[in-house]
Amino acid sequence: MSSTGPIRVLIADDQPDVRSAFRMILDVQPDMAVVAEAADGAAAVAEARRLRPDVVLADIRMPKLDGLEVTRQLAGQCKVIVVTTFDLDEYVHTALRHGAAGFLLKRSGPVLLIEAIRAAMAGDALISPQVTVRLLRHMAAPGPEERSGSGAAAPPAAGPVEELTAREREIAELVADGATNAEIGSGLFISPGTVKNHLANVQRKLGARNRVGIAAWVWEQAAGNR
Prior knowledge:
By secondary structure, the chain is of the alpha/beta class. The protein is about 50% helix and about 15% strand. It has 11 helices and 6 strands. Strands 2-1-3-4-5-6 form a 6-stranded parallel sheet, sandwiched between helices. Helix 2 packs parallel to helix 3, helix 8 (about 165-175) crosses helix 11 and helix 9 (about 180-190) crosses helix 10 (about 190-205). It starts with 6 loop residues before the first strand and ends with a helix.
């Protein structure tokens, strides 16, 4: 929640049904309020500068200005979370380079959308688990020199500041597999609140800023053990 009340959200998407669905999800949250909608990128930038929302949800493919340009123009003025159907690596890299506070696939569901908004307000950046896993697999894949044996092997990843418990390591590995908090809780028969507490401990011990950092550590460990 912002210091003066609920988190103020602007929804930018050229599809009315998507805007309506997002509004329905967010308006029932006690700590969130939708302050405006925009059907194109230029309107999103204008409304954001007029209303000063805390968070802008921006689709990538919009008329006039796409979501990547919206992100570039609004970065530093508010938190921009890119929410899209298209999970191309180029989009992810560009969005994050322009200062996006999150990158979500529309199919990720309402729970992750809500988590992403709260994470952005906490200074974090949440990326859809499906995207995280694919990007990290690319990072962990051996390069041409490693495959040919002509280059030096990558050094093992540095250990955590404090050793993870067995349960914390289990949860970290599930994060790296792309599981959401709800899925982790369901699979381990623990509450979402307990999952969040474990993840907070994992982040502290690893010095990771977010789920992406946790997943990166798991993949680095796997690469170092190959």
